[in-house]
Amino acid sequence: MPDLSDPDELDALALRAAAGDRAALEDLLAAVQPRVRRTCGRMLLYPEDAEEATQDALLLVATKIGQFGGRSRFTTWLHAVASNSARGTYRTLKRRAAERLTDELPVAPDPRTTSVIAGSRLDLLEALEVVGSSHPELVEPLVLRDVQQLEYSEIAALLEIPLGTVKSRIHAARTAVRPLLAITD
C-alpha cells in the first residue's frame, strides 16, 4: 500500500479512483475519512453533526471523484467538498429547527441553530448564509482560507480563478462578515 501521508501518493490514488479504479476509491475513502471528519468538525459544534457532514462529504467524494482532474492537490479539492458538506449540514439543521418550531409549541432554543456566544462557529455559519444569499462567490474562498486554512495559491487553483481575484473575494467577504459577527452590548 502506498504512503498516503505523502501528497503525491494521495494525488496518484485519487487520479486512479477518478479513472474508475474501484479498489483505489475504497482505499482513498478510508485514507481521507479522518481528514474529512476534522474539516467538518472545525465548522460544526456537535460531533454528531460533524459526523453527518463527514458521511455526506465521503458520499460526494465517491460519486464526484470523476470530476477531480488533478489540476490542484486532491486535498485541496477534498477540503472544498468537506467544507461545502458542513455548510449544507448546517443549512439542513437550521431548516429542520425552523420547521419544528412552526409545527410545535415554542421550545427552548436548539444550541445547534442558536448561538449565545458571538464569534462562535455557528455565528460564522449564519453570517456566511447571509453573505452567500447576495454574494455567493465570496463564501467559498473565505471558508477555504479562514476556516480550512488553505493557502491563497491552493484556493486559486481549486476555484480556477486568478490569485488576485481570490485575495479580493476574501477581503470583500471578511468586510461583509465582520459586522454580522460584532458583539453588541
TrEMBL record:
Residues 30-95 form the RNA polymerase sigma-70 region domain. Residues 140-176 form the RNA polymerase sigma factor 70 region 4 type domain. GO terms for molecular function: DNA binding; sigma factor activity. GO terms for biological process: DNA-templated transcription initiation. It comes from the Bacteria. Keywords: DNA-binding, Sigma factor, Transcription, Transcription regulation. The keyword DNA-binding applies. Belongs to the sigma-70 factor family. ECF subfamily. NCBIfam families: sigma70-ECF (TIGR02937). This is RNA polymerase sigma-70 factor, ECF subfamily.
